[in-house]
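task queued by scheduler; priority normal; single chain, no ligands, no partner chains; default sampling; output format set to C-alpha cells
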Amino acid sequence: AMKLCRDYERMGVEEREKLRSARLKALVEWARKNSPYYSELYKDLPENYTLSDLPPAPREILWSPYMMIRQTISWEESQPAAAMPEAKI
C-alpha cells in the first residue's frame, strides 16, 4: 500500500486521472456483475462516465440487507457468547 501511495504521488496529473478512471470502471463493473441492484442502477451510464455520473443509491436500499438480518435475530443472539452470563470459557 505504501508503494502505491508513493507511486501515485510521483505521477503526473494525466496519469493520476487515468488511474482513477480505471479504478472507478473496475469497481462499477464489479458491482454490475455481482449485484442485481447495481446492475440495474448503472445500466444507463454513458460509455465514458465519471464519478459524478453515478446515480446516488438511496439510504433505504443500502441499509435494507442489514435491517432484514437485524429483524430476524434477537438481541441476545447477536451478542458474543463470552458476554452471556451462562457462557463458560
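post-processing summary
- The radius of gyration is 21 Å.
- The chain has four helices and no strands.
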